[in-house]
From TrEMBL:
The keyword Ion transport does not apply. Belongs to the isocitrate and isopropylmalate dehydrogenases family. Its EC number is 1.1.1.85. Its cofactor is Mg(2+). GO terms for molecular function: 3-isopropylmalate dehydrogenase activity; isocitrate dehydrogenase (NAD+) activity; magnesium ion binding; NAD binding. This is Isopropylmalate/isohomocitrate dehydrogenase. InterPro entries: HICDH (IPR054960), IsoCit/isopropylmalate_DH_CS (IPR019818), IsoPropMal-DH-like_dom (IPR024084), LEU3_arc (IPR011828). PANTHER family: DECARBOXYLATING DEHYDROGENASES-ISOCITRATE, ISOPROPYLMALATE, TARTRATE, ISOCITRATE DEHYDROGENASE [NAD] SUBUNIT ALPHA, MITOCHONDRIAL. Pfam families: Iso_dh.
Length: 343
């Protein structure tokens, strides 16, 4: 059997702590070829490029990418030397148009608080299109929001197909078309076209909510959601909010999926305030690796890794952000112990 090639980009800050621990756990569960590359703020300071061409080339040659977290330089630094975001660059270069963020409460000690839904956001356009400029004459800063038919169709189709594949019953479109009538109006109209098709063919319900109301519903009644599909910025904000239902960003994994590539990263940032202290929570990175295993068609290993994390959480073997006192490495050791018990 072919050994999967994984491009590993640790990045900055706690990325350099949680990604090595995740690799150590992956070595316990299977055979992989890990190829290490550089990207991020430290890379930018060292060689003047936040994501070198060599990194992009390796990413394109591998079966999947495991990405840590990167810091962003101060604005005055980027004025002297142009800085391009490594993660946004990877998303665009590899056309990773679907960002998948599961909001799944792994600690089911309170069965009345069962939370299990998926946020799927468009990943390459919207307000993250990167088109910004300053009009000196008008003293006006402008950022363009790009919503295309192509981008909308493929992310909405992805969401409905995800629902079919994973036996989900409902897809909710989140928008602000009452104000953003052209951009979100386009997104919602396309959603409504797909809604009819998937209702007729697969009996999947489709509905829509305004984004501001959704922010409240996620906190008040998260069980009303199954699959959420939305635009780039809305999805980014709502998924970070929803991670609070799980215990915080230390438990929030994500996948960036395209037609040809997959990149997997914890939702959290580089957290410079705790970097180097050995207390970063590795679970979001480990769960991202579980998503990577599923993508690589290693579904049983993906399940085992997720089950091991569930056991660690049930036993309260956790880092300080969750109220525990274990170090990053100690949590990883506990996950490995659980893997050896159940595999």
């Amino acid at each position: 059997m072919k050994i999967p090639k994984i491009c590993v980009i640790e990045g900055d800050g706690i990325g350099k702590e949680v990604i090595p621990e995740t690799v150590r756990i992956l070595k316990e569960i299977g055979d992989f070829e890990f190829i290490y590359e550089h990207a991020g703020y430290e890379c930018f300071k060292r060689c003047g490029d936040a994501i070198p061409e060599k990194t992009l080339k390796t990413a394109k040659e591998c079966d999947a990418i495991l990405f840590g977290a990167v810091s962003t330089p101060k604005l005055d630094e980027t004025e002297r030397k142009p800085y391009k975001s490594p993660i946004l660059t990877l998303r665009k270069e590899l056309d990773l148009y679907a960002n998948v963020r599961p909001i799944h409460k792994l600690d089911n000690s309170d069965s009345s608080n069962n939370i299990d839904f998926i946020i799927i956001r468009e990943n390459t356009e919207g307000l993250y299109s990167g088109v910004e400029y300053y009009d000196e004459e008008k003293e006006l800063a402008i950022s363009e929001r790009h919503i295309s038919k192509k981008g909308s169709k493929r992310i909405i189709k992805f969401a409905f197909e995800y629902a079919v594949k994973h036996h989900r019953k409902k897809v909710s479109c989140i928008h602000k078309s009452n104000i953003l009538r052209i951009t979100d109006g386009l997104f919602l109209n396309i959603f409504n076209e797909f809604k009819e098709k998937y209702k007729n063919e697969y009996n999947i319900e489709g509905n829509d909510y305004l984004v501001d109301a959704t922010a409240m519903y996620i906190l008040k009644s998260p069980q009303m959601f199954d699959v959420i599909v939305t635009t780039n910025l809305f999805g980014d904000i709502l998924s970070d909010e929803a991670s609070g239902l799980l215990g915080g960003l230390g438990l929030a994994p994500s996948a960036n999926i395209g037609d040809n590539y997959g990149l997997f990263e914890p939702v959290h940032g580089s957290a410079p305030d705790i970097a180097g202290k050995g207390v970063a929570n590795p679970i979001a990175a480990v769960l991202s690796a579980s998503m990577m295993l599923y993508y690589l068609d290693m579904k049983e290993k993906s399940r085992l890794l997720k089950d091991a994390v569930k056991q660690v959480l049930a036993h309260k073997d956790i880092t300080p952000d969750l109220g525990g006192n274990l170090k990053t490495k100690e949590v990883s050791d506990k996950i490995i112990e659980e893997l050896r018990k159940i595999s």
